[in-house]
Amino acid sequence: MSIHAQETVRRISVPDIAARKGGEPIVCLTAYDAPMAALLDPHCDVLLVGDSVGMAVHGLPNTVGVTLEMMILHGQAVVRGSRRALVVVDMPFGAYEGGEQAAYDACVRVMKETGAQAVKLETSAELAPIVRFLVRRGIPVMGHIGLRPQAVLAEGGFKAKGRTDAERERVLAEAVAVAEASAFCIVIEGVAESLAREITQTIDVPTIGIGASAACDGQVLVVNDMLGMFDWTPKFVRKYADLRGEIDRAAAAFASDVKSRRFPAEVETYFSVRRIPCSDLLGRRFRG
Fold it and tell me: Are 21 and 205 in contact (CB under 8 A)?
């Protein structure tokens, strides 16, 4: 029995998400730190600790340079900052492609050290056996098909998938293989609406789209994109705020106040309490 009081809010579970197939759309956003996780938690079914952290937070040109240690650090923060949402941690490039046992060892480490409820793998038909191996050993896996950011170097950039008949067939086959390997959910990224709809109707697990139309069972965006932190965002992003502009205006106002000595003002300043010598106090007493 834990010495800590149980949380009054029950976390959404893997079976809860799996049961949402064809039902209420699944709401998912990325999160990389505890304060943001706490803000997003009441609104999201899934918080994805995406390897997009490499680009969104660390300034990397792509996700290839993200390490297992980085994902664990950010995963720990998101779990600490959230109470309700299912937390899924991306497995970074190189952490799971080397074979079933290597993938298992890396995933076990992530789940033990972060407390997350599931992991996500960028999957292909060739990696379906690894998904099956992990799930059979108690590790819930979210798949990811279509545009796979970790393959950016091999594919020469971030390119939408499924534009030819052969590519459509390949992506659909990947979805079927990963679903049959018992992934509880599959992210579909960067594909045409017709292909996303066909995949969603074909497989029996929920699909979460990112640049894959409203035909999916849910949607995910990189939170920094959604909040308007960058000048450029992909076509599929809708900006729900302009935090880049707000931060720029706030920083400019702060700089101006500092240079003109308007900040800190008296209200933001600590002052010493003037100490009255004992002799003065005694003198006042006798004079009174």
Answer: yes
Q: How distant, in Å, are the alpha carbons of 12, 16, 114, 231 from that of 8?
A: 13, 18, 21, 40
Question: Which among 181, 227, 213, 207 has a CA at the least distance from the CA of 32?
Answer: 227
- Residues 41/80, Cβ–Cβ less than 8 Å: no
174 is catalytic: no
| Opening angle at CA 200, ends 41 and 137, nearest 5 | 65
Closest CA to 160 of 90, 212, 238: 212
∠ CA 181-184-188 to the nearest 5 degrees? 90
List pLDDT tens digits, range 27-75.
999 999 999 999 999 999 999 999 999 999 999 999 999 999 999 999 9
The active-site residue out of 122, 174, 189, 198 is 189
What does 199-231 look like in DSSP terms, one character per residue?
A: HHHHSSS-EEEESS-TTSSEEEE-HHHHTT-SS
Measured distance CA(178)–CA(58) in Å, rounded:
30
What digits encode the pLDDT tens for the residues 145-171?
A: 999 988 877 777 777 777 789 999 999
Residue 92 pLDDT grade (very low, low, confident, very high; cuts 50, 70, 90): very high
